[in-house]
Amino acid sequence: MQLSDRKRKILQAIIHDYIETAEPVGSRTICKNHISDLSPATIRNEMADLEEMGYLEQPHTSAGRIPSDLGYRVFVDSGLERYRLTIKEMLQMQEAFKHKMREANSIMSEISSILSQMTNYTAVATSKRASNIKIQSLQVMPIDARRILAMMITNDGGVKNQLIVTHKEIDGVRASEITAVLNSCFAGMTVSDITPEKLAEAGARFRGFAEIDDVFEFMLKSAAEIEKQEIIVDGSINMLSFPEYSDVNKAKRILEYINDKKSLNMLLQSPKRENEIEVIIGNENPLDEFKDCSIIMCSYNLGGRSGSIGLVGPRRMNYSKAISMMEYLKNELDNIISERTDEDE
Amino acid sequence: MQLSDRKRKILQAIIHDYIETAEPVGSRTICKNHISDLSPATIRNEMADLEEMGYLEQPHTSAGRIPSDLGYRVFVDSGLERYRLTIKEMLQMQEAFKHKMREANSIMSEISSILSQMTNYTAVATSKRASNIKIQSLQVMPIDARRILAMMITNDGGVKNQLIVTHKEIDGVRASEITAVLNSCFAGMTVSDITPEKLAEAGARFRGFAEIDDVFEFMLKSAAEIEKQEIIVDGSINMLSFPEYSDVNKAKRILEYINDKKSLNMLLQSPKRENEIEVIIGNENPLDEFKDCSIIMCSYNLGGRSGSIGLVGPRRMNYSKAISMMEYLKNELDNIISERTDEDE
DNA sequence: TATTAGCACTCATTTATCTTTAGTGCTAAC
DNA sequence: GTTAGCACTAAAGATAAATGAGTGCTAATA
Fold it and tell me: Residues in chain B with pLDDT < 50?
């Protein structure tokens, strides 16, 4: 059976109401609120068809209908009318980009915060640095009589640092010497090339500098941190405002998964089309734990960092609004990127 | 009326059971589980006394008793028997201190994570740097043709950094020049002395360096960040496992407050005795929102940072365990501090 | 005099039953 | 093809009765 125009309209009406109320929608409600030129009986007939076609579900006889995953799917795919952002909303979003020079990671966490605040859903983001990051320079610098600061600067402009306590004083001259040797050994190396073996090899060149092991430990730790995926979660408490999670145990479970790096990673890792907004509905989800949720997600690539950002909400998400917001932010992001590239040329 | 030994025993029994079950405790239960040489009737009489004295409350006639704030208070103050940590627990805690060189802030967040995992309560911590932090040195360093890295190093070994896009290439020599001027202007200054006025004043000395304003902006931002109080929250979802918060709305409210920097700040700011463990029970709390909670807290002072760390749980918290854990961590922390100081001497 | 058995009483919780309500599907008329 | 009408269904709500965990008090007991 084909989806007639009328059927589509009814489906839309049901989805619209269900998104707002979280209650099954009955034929009379649709007649009153959306399609007053048809009688409830007619609408009922159409609804029965829609159910048979798999777009609707009925929690029990004598309840109204709720959309199925498939129902949401056609709703989303067949051009849902766009939510138009208010001026205020746009301004608010631009706020996140005010300090454009900021580190990519802090831009992403600001975006997440704004997205979650404005949609009332949960924003999640992964962020990983490019894999071929190199060591731009290493530095050792005296802070006071017994402490030196070790720094590792990467060619994406990242800085890692650590205080090291020394046994005897190391003055500026000595520190410069050590710095020079460090750079001659390691500058230009890929971060992933920093291994205990390589470090041990170079160790001999630092005779007389007792704390070199601490420096090496710092380098290893930093290298590991740089390669690690970071994860941002914002607004997870918003989940508690949906009647879907009025049961505390269910709420606890979903919050645990949302705050769990591993599952979040899996959730966000499937961008089929690079750089396009993707909508994942209910059971389309790779993780069972999120089968009651929908996700609007998109991959990004910004200042040496890449990853995905997503909005997680109940299945009856306000797709129109969530997608529009995501789209707007994505455009803003793209602007930054092209600006940055322009300046580079 | 005096608290006889028997009354104290009964009070303890009630608190013990109530901490476990969260249900009002009746006379028969106490007789069976704790004091089998007295009849329920006798225990009932004592309970009536204890209620009159303000140590117990009765949710309604025909319910057992629950401890009042005052009840918990005498329980906590009159030497509750200490929970003895298992070897495993001790090892787990020491894990947090493995990398002793770490930055104070990351030690605190590791401690928070371990505390919340082991107690199943919520760990919160504030962390503020000493107020008289000075600029040790400033640096500007070329990263590639169009980007320089600005760094600000403070005398507590902290590093702030930011990438700045430039219009024309700035080579190493030029960068060193700028660095030298920056240091002659600002090295040794207190962070709080960095004001727009001071910066504007110095601006003239950087003619020919178009991006000085970006550097100044970075300095202002960094100075502000350094002076800002940081807040760590870990395990707030644990709150959802207590029957006290089986109502989602109540749960949401407390989670919102727990994740709100302002209220957390107030919550943790009242250490009457520096460096001692303090127990705040229910309504003793400065904030109404937390009147159903108890807090075990303690101030700390580590590597140029100071603040408080606390454990938040329901009023019927396992005080014995929570206090012991906190005490253990506090000792470990003190060890680090003294080690560090030793090395300095 | 302190303890305890016994008992009437209270009130939240559970269970059972009935009622209401919001919805359906089907049939027959328009 | 549309709709009015009606019997039917199942959840949700209301009411009432039964249950049970606990109390306080009194009078008997050690």
Answer: 343-345
Within 8 A by CB and 6+ apart from B47, the residues are B10, B14, B27, B56, B65
Partners of B245 on chain A (C-beta within 8 Å) are 248
Q: Do A214 and B101 touch (CB under 8 A)?
A: yes
Q: Are B249 and B256 in contact (CB under 8 A)?
A: no
Q: Which pair of tokens denotes residue A74?
A: 């056609």
Q: Are A149 and B157 an interchain contact pair (Cβ–Cβ within 8 Å)?
A: yes
D23 nearest neighbour residue (CA to C1'): B62
- The answer to whether B229 touches B126, Cβ cutoff 8 Å, is yes
Residue A271 has what pLDDT?
67
Give the pTM. 0.93
In the predicted model, residues of chain A with pLDDT beneath 70 are 1, 99-102, 270-271, 340-345
User: Which ranges in B82-211 belong to alpha helices (H)?
Assistant: 87-95, 104-119, 172-186, 196-203
Which residues, 6 or more positions from B178, have their beta carbon under 8 angstroms from its beta carbon? B140, B170, B206, B209
Contact criterion met (CB below 8 Å) for B122 and B235 = yes
- Chain C: positions less than 7 Å from a protein CB are 3-6, 9-12, 22-27
Looking at residue B28, what is its pLDDT? Answer: 96
Neighbours of A290 (CB within 10 A): 23
Q: Are A321 and A294 in contact (CB under 8 A)?
A: no
Tell me which residue of A159, A124, A161 sits closest to A141, measured CA to CA.
Answer: A161
Instruction: Give the span between the Cα atoms of B268 and A90, in whole angstroms.
Output: 37
Contacting residues of B for A147, CB less than 8 Å apart: 157
Q: Contact A129/A226 with Cβ under 8 angstroms?
A: yes
What domains are defined for chain B? Answer: 5-77 (1.10.10.10), 87-121+235-344 (3.30.450.40), 135-227 (3.30.390.60)
CB B196 within 8 A of CB B188: no
**Alpha-carbon distance A144 to nearest alpha carbon in chain B (angstroms):** 8
The candidate with the shortest Cα–Cα distance to A210, out of A152, A137, A148, is A148
DSSP state of A316: T
Which of these, A17, A32, A102, lies nearest to A64 by C-alpha position?
A17
A159/B159 Cβ within 8 A: yes
Q: What is the pLDDT of residue B271?
A: 67
**pLDDT of amino acid A100:** 60
* Burial of B229 from C-beta contacts in 10 A (0-12 / 13-18 / 19+): middle
Asked if B157 has any chain A CB less than 8 Å from its own CB, the reply is yes
- In angstroms, the separation between the Cα of residue A163 and the nearest Cα of chain B is 6
Counting Cα atoms < 13 Å in the Cβ hemisphere of B18 gives 28
Residue B344's pLDDT is: 45
State the smallest CA–CA distance between residue A157 and chain B in angstroms.
6
What's the pLDDT score for residue B302? 86
pLDDT digits (tens, 9 = 90+) for A16-54: 999 999 999 999 999 999 999 999 999 999 999 999 999
The CA-CA-CA angle for residues A225, A150, B216, to 5°, reads 90
- Does the nearest atom of strand C lie within 7 Å of A58's Cβ? yes
pLDDT at A181: 97
Amino acid making up residue B252: K
A245 touches chain B (CB under 8 A): yes
